[in-house]
Write a structure and sequence with these properties.
It contains six helices and three strands, in the order E-H-H-E-H-H-H-E-H. By secondary structure, the chain is mainly alpha-helical. The chain has one domain (8-117). Strands 1-2-3 form a three-stranded parallel β-sheet. The radius of gyration is 17 Å and the shape is globular.
């Protein structure tokens, strides 16, 4: 949910995971978003990464095990739901469009060139 706050912040998956684990620094970033002092944003990649890490953390199983028995994930849906609702209610999801992809690739190309010439 966007509040119209002047400050907007893109939040990466590592900050969200650390927040869920009780990290104080991450809490200092996330609480102003929850309180609608700052508009928080994520994209579909962050959403996916957070859910993937949470599923592994809750089930205490490897990705390979979960791939063999994907139905087991349904057994933790109730626990996951609170995280899903949190992400959907407190953050706007930014679209990853062709322009954003092109800019990211362009920056990587510049970085590659810099690393090769220095």
């Amino acid at each position: 949910m966007m509040s119209g706050a002047m400050i907007k912040a893109f939040v990466d998956s590592n900050v969200l995971i650390k927040y869920f684990m009780g990290d104080e620094t991450a809490k200092n970033i996330i609480v102003p978003i929850i309180n609608h002092e700052i508009d928080g944003a994520i994209n579909s990649i962050v959403f996916s990464e957070v859910l993937y890490i949470l599923v592994r953390s809750i089930t205490k199983r490897s990705a390979n095990d979960l791939k063999k028995k994907p139905a087991d994930i349904m057994g933790i849906y109730d626990e996951l739901e609170k995280y899903i609702v949190f992400l959907m209610d407190d953050f706007v999801e930014l679209e990853i469009n062709e322009d954003i992809k092109s800019r990211a690739i362009n920056r990587l190309n510049h970085l590659d060139y810099y690393l090769m010439t220095h």
